[in-house]
Structures
1.
Amino acid sequence: MSASKTKPIRWGMVGGGRGSQIGYIHHSAALRDSTFELVAGAFDIDPERGRAFGVDLGLDEARSYPEYAAMFAAEAERPDGIEAVSVATPNNTHFAICKAALEHGLHVVCEKPLCFTVSEAQELKALSQARHKIVGVTYGYAGHQMIEQARAMVKNGDLGEIRIVNLQFAHGFHSAPVEDQNPSTRWRVDPTTAGPSYVLGDVGTHPLYISEVILPHLTIKRLMCARQSFVKSRAPLEDNAVTLMEYDNGAIATVWSSAVNAGSMHGQKVRIVGEKASIEWWDERPNQLSYEVQGEPARILERGMGYLYPEARIDDRIGGGHPEGLFEAWANLYRRFGFAINKEHGLAPDGIEGLAFPGIDAGLEGVRWVENCVRSADAGGVWVDYL
Amino acid sequence: MSASKTKPIRWGMVGGGRGSQIGYIHHSAALRDSTFELVAGAFDIDPERGRAFGVDLGLDEARSYPEYAAMFAAEAERPDGIEAVSVATPNNTHFAICKAALEHGLHVVCEKPLCFTVSEAQELKALSQARHKIVGVTYGYAGHQMIEQARAMVKNGDLGEIRIVNLQFAHGFHSAPVEDQNPSTRWRVDPTTAGPSYVLGDVGTHPLYISEVILPHLTIKRLMCARQSFVKSRAPLEDNAVTLMEYDNGAIATVWSSAVNAGSMHGQKVRIVGEKASIEWWDERPNQLSYEVQGEPARILERGMGYLYPEARIDDRIGGGHPEGLFEAWANLYRRFGFAINKEHGLAPDGIEGLAFPGIDAGLEGVRWVENCVRSADAGGVWVDYL
Amino acid sequence: MSASKTKPIRWGMVGGGRGSQIGYIHHSAALRDSTFELVAGAFDIDPERGRAFGVDLGLDEARSYPEYAAMFAAEAERPDGIEAVSVATPNNTHFAICKAALEHGLHVVCEKPLCFTVSEAQELKALSQARHKIVGVTYGYAGHQMIEQARAMVKNGDLGEIRIVNLQFAHGFHSAPVEDQNPSTRWRVDPTTAGPSYVLGDVGTHPLYISEVILPHLTIKRLMCARQSFVKSRAPLEDNAVTLMEYDNGAIATVWSSAVNAGSMHGQKVRIVGEKASIEWWDERPNQLSYEVQGEPARILERGMGYLYPEARIDDRIGGGHPEGLFEAWANLYRRFGFAINKEHGLAPDGIEGLAFPGIDAGLEGVRWVENCVRSADAGGVWVDYL
Amino acid sequence: MSASKTKPIRWGMVGGGRGSQIGYIHHSAALRDSTFELVAGAFDIDPERGRAFGVDLGLDEARSYPEYAAMFAAEAERPDGIEAVSVATPNNTHFAICKAALEHGLHVVCEKPLCFTVSEAQELKALSQARHKIVGVTYGYAGHQMIEQARAMVKNGDLGEIRIVNLQFAHGFHSAPVEDQNPSTRWRVDPTTAGPSYVLGDVGTHPLYISEVILPHLTIKRLMCARQSFVKSRAPLEDNAVTLMEYDNGAIATVWSSAVNAGSMHGQKVRIVGEKASIEWWDERPNQLSYEVQGEPARILERGMGYLYPEARIDDRIGGGHPEGLFEAWANLYRRFGFAINKEHGLAPDGIEGLAFPGIDAGLEGVRWVENCVRSADAGGVWVDYL
Ligand SMILES: NC(=O)c1ccc[n+]([C@@H]2O[C@H](COP(=O)([O-])OP(=O)(O)OC[C@H]3O[C@@H](n4cnc5c(N)ncnc54)[C@H](O)[C@@H]3O)[C@@H](O)[C@H]2O)c1
Ligand SMILES: NC(=O)c1ccc[n+]([C@@H]2O[C@H](COP(=O)([O-])OP(=O)(O)OC[C@H]3O[C@@H](n4cnc5c(N)ncnc54)[C@H](O)[C@@H]3O)[C@@H](O)[C@H]2O)c1
Ligand SMILES: NC(=O)c1ccc[n+]([C@@H]2O[C@H](COP(=O)([O-])OP(=O)(O)OC[C@H]3O[C@@H](n4cnc5c(N)ncnc54)[C@H](O)[C@@H]3O)[C@@H](O)[C@H]2O)c1
Ligand SMILES: NC(=O)c1ccc[n+]([C@@H]2O[C@H](COP(=O)([O-])OP(=O)(O)OC[C@H]3O[C@@H](n4cnc5c(N)ncnc54)[C@H](O)[C@@H]3O)[C@@H](O)[C@H]2O)c1
């Protein structure tokens, strides 16, 4: 990876404060390779804790704001104000914060799920288009280089026509009602803060987005979904769900979303079966991709190697054999967000232009998928046309 | 494993002739440990080829019959005639051959699927009860020792209440229309010889039976099934199918049956998720069982070790560390068939009495499951009550 | 695998009685596929227990002998007397029993180590040649089909010139002084019964023989060995040893032999590194062979598949995907012993002639290797020329 | 991981310029979490290329120096001059650059091997002590959290007395003479630039240092080493080496160092065998540690989990299940370097004080080990007392 030549983008954060699950990886990824520069933040629902956290991160005290509206207003007044903001707060706040950010002329990187409904997502999309602002959504796993390899393989016909897609993100960390002790879990199982689903939106949308990256030519025609609340107090939100989908080309997909897959760590896996070969990827071994041609020995493809497609090598930082992890995947995405923003600003983005970029449409599709799943599940697990 | 003390049971075979897929493992397993003794056979649809094959196997030429009806009749006349017969012919012949065998007073070991319809299976069941004859069905993988371990673990509450059951048997050997060249595949994709399904019955019933062994206390309430013929000429028979099932306790199951999972070898896997822990077993590594307690490191249980439940050690032939394979699994089943037969004969079966035994009910349940899956699939993949 | 056409060879056993570690696999492997037929035995150091065991195995009571000398004498008198005998007793008895067997005109299958010294082995070799009798040695793992694949790959130049050979058989079952309770371990750590070494001979010779099979063109020039008795009461016998070897072509090898590799199951692994590629085999996953060409994705070769070399498919019983285990490996060796014997008898052995066959020279080489290792170790771990 | 409260340390780099193998990870790790701040550099042997690279990294042009001596001199004059420097140049320059840096009052982070001889290393050690400066050495893999877990397990007696240590770093990237095309390889196989060894120093010292971290209580008594130049033009430098070592407690170790292990990726593995249990770690799966208690199922310990020892959780950035990679390992080390420097400066280092820190002694021990190995190898692979 070569050093970037553009100036870092002035950037702020909403949420992701001390003790939050996902805050650290946002700034770690954004600052990596100096794509962004952290200059402001409203990190916490507790203003004082948020302010102190920002100062610890090295922020100017005045720019460690008590809440996001104040930040957007104040920064808009500054000549050196933020150009972009990331939103890493609980789900119920995403829509309002993103909307306010766009209205203040900011590019936005928002956590998934982008919002609660397709119509909200469409409103954000319209706004972003009107304002010529980028909206990125942090489907972070998609930044792994082997996902680009998978995409290139499908595109180049290495698998033949696609037949079967098996997706899962099924961990076990919430097998017991841990929400009683853990606030990061508590809001996830409450519809007012989490939205219409728990695991479908929280974990299922990750491999779903990866499937969109690898299989851009396929369209979901109909799906059915069964969801369960094995910890009963979580109802109506599900802690486990199985979704079946039919694509327009006749391919079939399953998606297993779970937080009660006891003893499993991440459990995010993607298997794509074509008429000639299959590929399989597992996010706990993200540097490998299994490539299985029918009638030949299975091959283990390794990140960083010369035999990969060029798209899969662009983000290489360290060569093959050295394991890269989730932080590099996120940093890759943030680089793509940065390049997209710089392009809007008329700067020449180079090199990584073709790489998968989870923008506003990826955010919208995730919300749409959850909406369809919930509609099916709440009707008793029936097939519904994909709307 | 201690040496057996009972005399070998006089035994014959129908089908499983030279070049057949599954014939070798039948006699290899039956003769292992001298449970059975091969004294007669009607091995082939081609009488002459069958006769020659029997002679090569060491049979008396006169008892290597041109066809099964002749065998049943002639053997019934002999004082040293066969007591039991195994049926390893294409599916469409099972019902007639089993029926004839029972009517001739023989114990039967039949290949799966036992027959085409539940009512046929019930007829065989009634006949076997009336004649006091054993009917065994060769769900061979269930003979692996780690399946007994899994069963004991569930029974002893190591997993807690069961929540999720993931079953699959999804190989890739028939990704292309190999039936054009291969007669063993050809009859499988033709409803007149294969019956109402291809992969559901051919492979899906294997992990289904394993789930019955491990989870005897669960009852399927309803299911839905989507089936596809990715090689179009196979329609109406499917080469891929996904089944969802709901159990009476609220648990959910998925079953993936496939012959077009390109590049996969066997692909038979069973994962059982409980509220406390999960277990996972893979038939290509049959000596291991993954045991994953939420919040603890995953454990790899190994066949033959002292820490297993006693049920899992009864069939140990060689101790831990030495891999046993499919032949031992089948030999274990044939030992159980033998003990069951000896018990009917008033001989004292010892030691292995509690071990899983795929009898007439297992055969019937497999046929019932296929029938329900097909009913759902043919109605468009809708939920159907399990009948 | 096709049915054999020759008559079973009349066969007896010495040792391998009830409760012995290795007795079961000998008769299971010999009887498999009717290569041999068990007609006599002297199974136990305890005459009465041995007699009862033979009867349980179905022997004529008169031919279940109290001790081997009586058996050899009596069988030699019978027109239907045994033609071959297997020896599965503790090490210190092998030489005398094999010698007596050969002198009685019997073919012999002997357990490793064949005897205690090279000069004893040479005496047995001379005797076997003089009498035109086969001596087979049960390096059982070498019967796995993937070992034939490895051999063919080296022969065909797939690896290029060989550079590095890493061998290990390092289990952990004797980490503690279990010999206090376990007679099968007790004799192994006593030089009067075990011979000049424990783990070198007991486990190390297994991968050593496999390396001889795969690399017939390499000759050991010199070696050095360090051995340890971590359980002190085992001294002078070692429970762990590391051997370094130099081959005539400049390649280097390491051999790790251990019974105190705590927590390891078998731990038998063979890695062969050539200038172009490496292969790696692990006896706990015997159906796979890793093939790693430098600069290409690693490939997992699977037993039973069409892409293997023909030599690797001869012994296939069940096709790819179905795991075969140690019992098939042993049965393959016994088939080769049987064919070799039949060939001596003027019968036409077909098909498997080129396959690796651990005969008298393999037995002798194992003894030689141990002798060299011990000579080095006892001189303080110095390099010694390979004699 | 909590946000740091100390100000970033002003930091420069020597070497690690555009296209270098290891430059990127140095600044990526140092800048991570704002432990350091890059303010100067002399990145390249080619002054102009180095200058341009520094500017691309965002440096003030004036502080992107043409060579290190100029940098040390100029920065020493500035009130905001660098406080610390990292050295990522070919081996032959380390001694001179480190010496000059220390003489200019800088803390140093140096690449391994620290220098060519023990006496050079001792000179650097004396200088660093006289100047009260930290010298860190980037044995980067040691920063993985599971290494701390391994260390804590040994310390807490989970393995019992240590018996066997198996170390390897054996990749295959230089199986062919790639140095003809690749300058990063070329200097490695030339003694004037690489020093007295190639793979011993280049890769073998990595797992050696890890063993020192995990087993601080063991002392090497004697060793022997055989080294080979499989690509002949590399002689006298080796591209493969096997080292045997005896510790003062009677334990035995092997170290396999290689660049010609064809088809292997990293191949860095550490296995520690105790009387009760073994642990095994592999740098390509750095988030896992296998823990194998004799007589119990093997356990897979996972990074980030609550059951680990506290030392293994201090550096957790993202929780269990999310894979961390080599960049986090290096960032952890750089944090420790930073805290050590801050401590010298009288600032209170907290939290991570007990964690393994590869300082001047680690650097010296690596050089000493290579010296002993070479002495043994050049004497024909004899045992030498460890000096
Ligand atoms: N992309 C991923 O892989 C991934 C992983 C985890 C979480 N997430 C998403 O990230 C978001 C945050 O999840 P989390 O697990 O970090 O939650 P969390 O509960 O651990 O942390 C939420 C943080 O947001 C702060 N916050 C809440 N409301 C705020 C407000 N109005 N203004 C400013 N700060 C506010 C809280 O103080 C806290 O610091 C969620 O939308 C979640 O779905 C994504
Ligand atoms: N349990 C398992 O794991 C497993 C695996 C494979 C096959 N099977 C089942 O075994 C049965 C046989 O399958 P296969 O793959 O071996 O088929 P195959 O086509 O390879 O062999 C069928 C054999 O039956 C013989 N045959 C056919 N009709 C006959 C008749 N009327 N009388 C005597 N012999 C006759 C044929 O000559 C041939 O030898 C099927 O029901 C199949 O579902 C089970
Ligand atoms: N090839 C392999 O993989 C393998 C594996 C295990 C053992 N072995 C070898 O097999 C041999 C036996 O080992 P084991 O572990 O089965 O030993 P064991 O102690 O478990 O059994 C030895 C058997 O030999 C019988 N015996 C002893 N002396 C006898 C005599 N004079 N006459 C008749 N029977 C006698 C004993 O009664 C007992 O049944 C050893 O040489 C050992 O090295 C080989
Ligand atoms: N810790 C590790 O895991 C690890 C991994 C790889 C390399 N290394 C070590 O890092 C060092 C560098 O190795 P590399 O593979 O990056 O080498 P490289 O040849 O790829 O790069 C060397 C860099 O140093 C620059 N350089 C050379 N002489 C210089 C000088 N006098 N002043 C300034 N810059 C100079 C070169 O221009 C080049 O940018 C070596 O000592 C090597 O052993 C360590």
2.
Amino acid sequence: MRILLVNPNTNAAMTGAMAASARAVASPGTEIVPLTPRFGADAIDCNFESYLSAVAVMDAVSTVDTGFDAVVMAGFGEHGREGMQELVDVPVLDIAECAAHVAQLLGRTYSVVTTLRRSVGAIEDRLLLAGQRARCASVRATGLGTAELDADPDAAVAAVVEQARLAVEVDGAEVICLGCGGLAGLDEAIGARLGVPVVDGVTAAVRLAEAVVGLGLRTSKVCSYAPPPGNALTGWPLSHLGGAR
Amino acid sequence: MRILLVNPNTNAAMTGAMAASARAVASPGTEIVPLTPRFGADAIDCNFESYLSAVAVMDAVSTVDTGFDAVVMAGFGEHGREGMQELVDVPVLDIAECAAHVAQLLGRTYSVVTTLRRSVGAIEDRLLLAGQRARCASVRATGLGTAELDADPDAAVAAVVEQARLAVEVDGAEVICLGCGGLAGLDEAIGARLGVPVVDGVTAAVRLAEAVVGLGLRTSKVCSYAPPPGNALTGWPLSHLGGAR
Amino acid sequence: MRILLVNPNTNAAMTGAMAASARAVASPGTEIVPLTPRFGADAIDCNFESYLSAVAVMDAVSTVDTGFDAVVMAGFGEHGREGMQELVDVPVLDIAECAAHVAQLLGRTYSVVTTLRRSVGAIEDRLLLAGQRARCASVRATGLGTAELDADPDAAVAAVVEQARLAVEVDGAEVICLGCGGLAGLDEAIGARLGVPVVDGVTAAVRLAEAVVGLGLRTSKVCSYAPPPGNALTGWPLSHLGGAR
Amino acid sequence: MRILLVNPNTNAAMTGAMAASARAVASPGTEIVPLTPRFGADAIDCNFESYLSAVAVMDAVSTVDTGFDAVVMAGFGEHGREGMQELVDVPVLDIAECAAHVAQLLGRTYSVVTTLRRSVGAIEDRLLLAGQRARCASVRATGLGTAELDADPDAAVAAVVEQARLAVEVDGAEVICLGCGGLAGLDEAIGARLGVPVVDGVTAAVRLAEAVVGLGLRTSKVCSYAPPPGNALTGWPLSHLGGAR
Amino acid sequence: MRILLVNPNTNAAMTGAMAASARAVASPGTEIVPLTPRFGADAIDCNFESYLSAVAVMDAVSTVDTGFDAVVMAGFGEHGREGMQELVDVPVLDIAECAAHVAQLLGRTYSVVTTLRRSVGAIEDRLLLAGQRARCASVRATGLGTAELDADPDAAVAAVVEQARLAVEVDGAEVICLGCGGLAGLDEAIGARLGVPVVDGVTAAVRLAEAVVGLGLRTSKVCSYAPPPGNALTGWPLSHLGGAR
Amino acid sequence: MRILLVNPNTNAAMTGAMAASARAVASPGTEIVPLTPRFGADAIDCNFESYLSAVAVMDAVSTVDTGFDAVVMAGFGEHGREGMQELVDVPVLDIAECAAHVAQLLGRTYSVVTTLRRSVGAIEDRLLLAGQRARCASVRATGLGTAELDADPDAAVAAVVEQARLAVEVDGAEVICLGCGGLAGLDEAIGARLGVPVVDGVTAAVRLAEAVVGLGLRTSKVCSYAPPPGNALTGWPLSHLGGAR
């Protein structure tokens, strides 16, 4: 089984870290194929960057020529999953949604701990659209941006633990989801300090991709995610326009 | 007052029709500045095209050099409003949301009549995110795509009237919103046959833009729609990459 | 365009202050016609007074003989809008609902800051019935009654700013609505201290009335707000009964 | 125990019929004191008439000089309960809410069958505000007005049975509430034809009033329903103004 | 009228205390028949014990040979009501649900104060399933287990008062429900300290049972609570298996 | 990895069929350990039987002496998952919830097709409690009981296809979940006729169990699902009482 793991930002080092996390939990026989988009932001902390990443990720996947069995979209709370589900036939898994699905198999409620306060609403909205908001106790922000979390893992762990503890004690969360692709790999360190299950979206999505593919299931094409209807396109794919990486 | 009216698709004729509708209701002293994106689809009937339009519209607005007092985003149910609110300081108005706001000033419930069945979910989601879903009785589809509705106004009117009547009689709607930017200009013909108020999103948005600007109000920059944080960008704006229109 | 601006309480000075606010934002050519009911409370801080005002306002409007293009009901959280929509053909705009509509065009969430704690539930209920509660972060009370807020504008500003700050910092509000007709005129002073948009219901309603009238739209008469069915009435209009002002 | 049973309309014959129903289920020692308001509509089929009744009922109760242990407000879906709870110390029971409470003790879901289609929204709103909407399968209209239902009991039974059957078979209701005070006394005839429990609001409210009074409980005065704050009133009580009945 | 009052736990002393509470509010002519299950836990503080009690209570009621007019299930937040409604023809009343129903007749919002934090979710879920969650301001825990509350009434009162005060002041509750069958009899002592109505589920259920029986109503058998379909059973009733008490 | 697969009913043939389905999708190295309870119903079509199964399943699992890595509870819409999560340390997966989780990874909405109409509410309630109801388009009944579905697979397929088609065409479902453990193994036959993904709960749960175990995660023990507090038990485990199978 080949899983295409798409980092939404242009930071190839972060792509590598995510791939390492993914490989650590992948079953024998599962190949992780990492992909970095050709344009966009090197870290994503707002709606503009998120929308840009949605298109950059679709552009990157459209121009990949190898077969794969599933796509994991590794932006936590980013846009784009619904569009990708139209472009490809194989299952598409969003890490925020997968974290929520796994969390709800483990506890009655869950919270997300993410980066900046401005991202809280975006994550709430993604969970709402995925039908996964009812048991979300809270989405909390550490106040550190994606790049900051990525740059200093120790500070990241400390900041996440602080907010996660409040989520458990004040908001009533029973499971914590790490709300940033850049936190991949820190779930054990964080969980060890908290005494509650900690779910990382990238690894959750890899395992759920294996489950769905193993069940022989694919995205429903009957309505919302049918292939694009073929309206005339100008400039697509965008990375063919010119000098993008 | 100058209102930038952005068509999400690349169809300049549709831009022109929208601008004509907008000018017909604009107050004296309001200038409508139409804008067509440089890349994307010439009609939008799926999530992929919608996400592409979100970025194309942000690209187009980013590269316009004239001052304006508000932006009207003329895609019904398309993505992107949250990103645009970060990129500009002036109020940003989405036509689906504006149609819903006006409809709820006129009746206890409203329905939307749109194009293809696959777009129903996308419109429901946009209304949900805008906090405007509670009094939405239904979103109904005519089964005609955006280009079809645009090409044959008589057929468009008939198809919309049929679904709107069901919305009123079966779903309990008291107001009808026209769920496609390409229906601009047909609201009176449709309303005359139905006996209920019919709201067109483009004209609603123009008038709400005047209202908000007239009140001296602007988008809140305290959290969700603060300016982008300045992460490094590759390839932005995209239309500078190469040969796009 | 003539807009009938109805104060729900019997305090003519407050009617005058509201009219001044309304005129300050009205477009050229819009005439504001203020109206004070003939019976009821001189300030409204409970359900009993609110219900009484609903009938007093309908009584007053029923007995006005001049033509007008819209009715603005200037009680924040008061009852009666649905009844007025049955009695008149022109659009009817409630200031609490209009404040919420405008707020949601400016930010992802909003809070209301009002008078007494006992009014919080009434405002929540009005927003709920209007389908505008989903993005309401909170309704907060200053602890000052309507008359107190009206009597001491400086104290009113300070008390509102204190609660509004908590709404932004604790509840996650991005826009503040002033939850009392008597706060009309203080929105700029309050907004200047907060750094978030502040919406006054009276001015919002005037501008939305202009928008709706400008669109050529009227209240839907197909169901909920059809004219009264003509059941026999005793004692209506009430102000004809006797010695009321 | 004395229960004040207030008919919201001015039709004394309907007051008498309600009182007869109430007495038929009242426990030994419970006295039913019927009351008809001095002004308003002789049947209530719209919001205007409903608001008028809310004030007329408060006026009537305010001017009754005998002691009572509870107030039953016998308008199904009418306004006013919150105001009455401020004016009196004893428990106040609304018949629509009481029907819903009892229905939910008997089945997983319930529907209401009422008069005109225009009243459906008003009843939905009242149930929503009372926190009783979640298990409401539907509110259905017979198309007959209050006066029509009252005038022809056989036609009323047939019309209610037809809609109730649809509520059970199509909407999944397990209990039916009779959505009009004028249907009091027909619950057994209707229930016999349907095979599901049929709840009449007047009798339900009388029995719930006995239950609450028997428990020694009264309306909470800590916040929403505290006594009116004493703002100056003009013209209250209204029936003292002049020639009202 | 004979009301079967079933304690879900095996603690006969607690059954006796509940029966005493019930008798104190029962109307003349109402006989309270207490019942203790033959197996299960002697106090219930978790889902395992709660599920066990559901079956033990059904077992006990199935093997009672005397006629009764209603069943009161005296576990606050315990499972089983839906099953019991299938097994018997008479009305079945759950004390948590009955407390919520009565509370909502007395105030706009209510809170529950219960035992351990782990029971909060179970009570929220029961209220949700009963359609009674919308006006629930909060469910708060004292941190004392069922047995502890039962053993030391003074400590129980103090702990409940502390949380109830927070429910009123912080969460906005207007009525308090005592969230544990073992608190029966303490409602007056607690209410006296709080100034808000305090509802005990056991007494509320007894009075509601009288109301429903007095109305001549029974559980709807049309769908969810029809008699069991007669699938073959092994080992039922369980208490016939062997040496249970 | 060893997965304990617990059939809630006493029908060992159905346990065998479920185990065969489970093994067909299990990964290499995953052992399926089937378990049949010692008491209860041989098919489950009501709340009484469901509650009984919850306790019978906990009884059976409590008395199994071999180690396992996860428990799959194979009753669709049955009670008990929360209790099992307290009794064991390993992850516990309910097939109704797992079907919903997988379905939502594949389409925007899903419907469940189940057995008798009386079970619709029970399934809706289970999905509601699991936080998985928001995107559930409908739960539809074939009208065939569990034993009937099990006895005649061809009739089962035809009946499920008929309701599933209505779910897709009328209710807007994009994925179908088979709402009965007894339908295990028919998903492919049904999916082939419908053109939408069909999810079987047993196989979904097995694959999700592998995913969760593979991620090294376990049930949160911080609150709702902590081990039972140790209240004294009478008669537990129940199957030790006497002559049960």
